Automatic annotation (TrEMBL):
<feature type="domain" description="Aminoacyl-tRNA synthetase class I anticodon-binding">
    <location>
        <begin position="470"/>
        <end position="611"/>
    </location>
</feature>
<dbReference type="InterPro" id="IPR000924">
    <property type="entry name" value="Glu/Gln-tRNA-synth"/>
</dbReference>
<dbReference type="InterPro" id="IPR020058">
    <property type="entry name" value="Glu/Gln-tRNA-synth_Ib_cat-dom"/>
</dbReference>
<dbReference type="InterPro" id="IPR001412">
    <property type="entry name" value="aa-tRNA-synth_I_CS"/>
</dbReference>
<feature type="domain" description="Glutamyl/glutaminyl-tRNA synthetase class Ib catalytic">
    <location>
        <begin position="92"/>
        <end position="429"/>
    </location>
</feature>
<dbReference type="GO" id="GO:0004818">
    <property type="term" value="F:glutamate-tRNA ligase activity"/>
</dbReference>
<dbReference type="GO" id="GO:0000049">
    <property type="term" value="F:tRNA binding"/>
</dbReference>
<keyword id="KW-0547">Nucleotide-binding</keyword>
<protein>
    <recommendedName>
        <fullName>glutamate--tRNA ligase</fullName>
        <ecNumber>6.1.1.17</ecNumber>
    </recommendedName>
</protein>
<dbReference type="GO" id="GO:0006424">
    <property type="term" value="P:glutamyl-tRNA aminoacylation"/>
</dbReference>
<dbReference type="InterPro" id="IPR004527">
    <property type="entry name" value="Glu-tRNA-ligase_bac/mito"/>
</dbReference>
<keyword id="KW-0436">Ligase</keyword>
<dbReference type="GO" id="GO:0008270">
    <property type="term" value="F:zinc ion binding"/>
</dbReference>
<dbReference type="InterPro" id="IPR020751">
    <property type="entry name" value="aa-tRNA-synth_I_codon-bd_sub2"/>
</dbReference>
<dbReference type="InterPro" id="IPR049940">
    <property type="entry name" value="GluQ/Sye"/>
</dbReference>
<dbReference type="Pfam" id="PF00749">
    <property type="entry name" value="tRNA-synt_1c"/>
</dbReference>
<keyword id="KW-0648">Protein biosynthesis</keyword>
Length: 615
């Protein structure tokens, strides 16, 4: 009989409510969600096990299950999968970086996916520091990891830095310490068990011998290298003699014959011939474990239910499954997220430029923009016609890719992650940054508009040089709100505000951007001078309130009259010319709006300055 439960056995991804679970006191609507999750979960697992179902697995008869099963093994595995313990097993995930330098943008995505999965499943998000490679460790890198996660808004529930305790105390939680360097005795106990069970062995080979072996195998085997088990035949007495003599050693796992299979939530069934696996070092000569031992021991002892990590670890996972089997402990569910690649399809790495999170932060990317972009690298938001939709109040995402953390927490699912590599498009991240800037200044009524304009004024005082502060403060609420409405949609970063200082001072025509457009606008200086003199005359006749529609009308009437006289002018020869003279730029907000904000006298003064400049 299939029991309703929350489980972490092979292939499980979504929660199911048991009458005795902590969720039994939830509302009917909440319980309905979990029942629908159960149906999707069963179907997902059945398909991955070869039970190619066309309808929900929980409404199939036993006869239908048997007829659709590709093998008896698949059917039996499905039965085992669904017949789990009645005990409640919570969702627990971890982000476990190594403190070897600045956090890679891909590392932040891994942390994000773990965080979102925990939030979406009412689980626990843990931070663990895997500092077992002392040769590559960078002092202070652990603190930078903590700082980046806090900046990105990824709060964790347990582990390093989870409280105000000193960082090196390992944080708080029932399964600490959360620094692997503080858990060495634990690893030695587990590796000794493997040695006692003849599933691991001592290796005394020197670095020189191993280097020579690799070179020999590379020449003869086309690059594939494996340890040759030179030390496997040593007797217990010989091993002890070498240890007593002080010879350095490592401990290697003894890979058995056969094949190793596991089910990945993203890649499905993965099988590897054990001949392809090396006798991996588990304990190094310095007494520190390798990643392969430490991660499976810690994941088990810390109750990790799902391991969500990069696809680069997929080839190593059979080794980890073997270790779980050797130690007779249950493995977590695995989900290997797709690689990030550059425009050429090569794996994104430090060689391809500034891809550390700190570099994005320094360039002015907002945390919510970076999170938005990273979430969509591999994960696809649900749509209203998705057959696996679990929520009746689903927000439709087709019209917008701009997602908040709340959106992501509500709708994230590992079932919506693809296998294909994800191209990292920097222009897309600039797009997200500009839209999240706009989003932060959206208003829906006059009170919100006033509040936004005050925040914008404070932003200008923070970003722009001090000599402009007096001019900034002269603007009252309404014109400042107009400046905000014109500037915010035209920037990708807050630092871009420095390109729009013409609201507060005359443009610098010796600047790089002004020089760039000078020849484009002033290709015929004498003609431009005549046009400016005519515009100066026409604009001088306007009232002092200098409304934008009146400015635009003067330009349009002038353009029409000149064409009627046979002095054919293009729009850009009037409107773009005036914009350039007033702002020092070729593109920007409608020129009438800009002139209205800076005022009649400032507009006329700037036109006159350019007339003099052209003489």
């Amino acid at each position: 009989m299939f029991r309703n439960r929350i489980g972490i056995q092979l292939g499980k991804s979504l929660k199911v409510v048991s009458p005795l679970s902590p969720f039994s006191n939830q509302s009917f609507a909440t319980q309905s969600v979990f029942r629908r999750q159960l149906r999707v979960d069963r179907t997902f697992r059945a398909r991955n096990l070869g039970l190619g179902t066309k309808k929900s697995i929980d409404v199939m008869t036993t006869k239908e299950l048997i007829s659709q099963a590709k093998s008896a093994t698949a059917l039996y595995q499905y039965a085992l999968d669904m017949e789990g313990e009645e005990e409640y097993k919570p969702t627990r995930v971890r982000y476990a970086p190594s403190p070897t330098g600045e956090m890679h943008i891909g590392g932040l995505r891994t942390a994000l996916f773990n965080y979102l999965f925990a939030k979406n499943n009412n689980g626990t998000f843990i931070l663990r520091i895997e500092d077992t490679d002392k040769n590559r460790e960078v002092e202070g890198a652990d603190q930078r990891i903590v700082d980046v996660l806090k900046w990105a808004g990824l709060t964790w529930d347990e582990g390093v830095g989870a409280t105000k305790n000193d960082l090196k105390e390992g944080g708080t939680g029932p399964f600490g310490p959360y620094y692997q360097s503080q858990r060495l005795q634990t690893y030695k106990k587990w590796v000794n068990t493997l040695v006692e069970n003849k599933q691991a062995y001592y290796c005394f080979c020197t670095a020189e011998r191993l280097k020579g072996l690799r070179k020999l195998q590379q020449r003869s085997k086309g690059g594939h290298t494996k340890y040759d088990r030179h030390c496997l035949g040593l007797t217990e007495e010989e091993v002890q003699q070498k240890i007593d003599a002080g010879e350095p050693y490592t401990i290697r796992m003894l890979v058995p014959e056969g094949t190793t299979s596991f089910n990945d939530m993203i890649h499905g069934q993965v099988t590897m011939n054990n001949r392809q696996l090396d006798d991996q070092i588990l304990l190094k000569s310095d007494g520190f474990p390798t990643y392969h031992l430490a991660n499976i021991v810690d994941d088990y002892l810390m109750g990790i239910s799902h391991v969500i990590r990069g696809e680069e670890w997929l080839p190593s996972t059979p080794k980890h499954i073997l270790l779980y089997n050797m130690l007779d402990i249950e493995p977590p569910v695995y989900a290997h997220i797709p690689l990030l690649v550059n425009n050429n399809g090569a794996k994104l790495s430090k060689r391809h430029g500034d891809i550390s999170v700190d570099s994005f932060k320094e360039k002015g990317y907002l945390p919510q923009a970076l999170i938005n972009g990273l979430a969509l690298l591999g994960w696809n938001p649900p749509s209203h016609d998705d057959p696996n939709i679990l929520y009746s109040n689903l927000k439709v995402f087709e019209e917008s890719e701009i997602l908040t953390m709340e959106d992501l927490e509500a709708y994230f699912s590992l079932l919506k992650i693809g296998k294909s590599p994800c191209k990292f498009d920097i222009d897309k991240f600039k797009f997200f940054n500009s839209h999240h800037i706009r989003k932060s200044y959206i208003y829906y009524n006059s009170d919100e508009r006033k509040e936004s304009s005050v925040r914008f004024r404070n932003l200008l005082l923070k970003i722009l040089p001090e000599e402009l502060h007096s001019a900034i403060r002269q603007y009252t609420y309404k014109p400042m709100a107009k400046i905000m409405d014109m500037m915010i949609p035209r920037i990708q970063f807050y630092s871009d505000l420095k390109k729009h200082t013409y609201y507060f001072q005359k443009p610098d025509f010796d600047s790089e951007i002004a020089q760039k457009f000078y020849k484009k606008v002033m290709s015929q200086p004498e003609k431009s001078k005549v046009i400016l003199e005519d515009l100066h005359s026409g604009l001088s006749e306007l009232d002092s309130d200098f409304k934008r529609e009146d400015v635009a009308k003067v330009c349009s009437v002038y353009l029409y009259e000149q064409n009627q006289k046979g002095n054919f002018l293009k729009n850009k020869e009037v409107f773009f010319l005036l914009r350039y003279v007033v702002t020092g730029n070729y593109v920007g907000a409608p020129i009438g709006d800009t002139c209205e904000v800076i005022g009649k006298q400032a507009t006329l003064d700037r036109i006159q300055d350019m007339i003099v400049r052209l003489e």
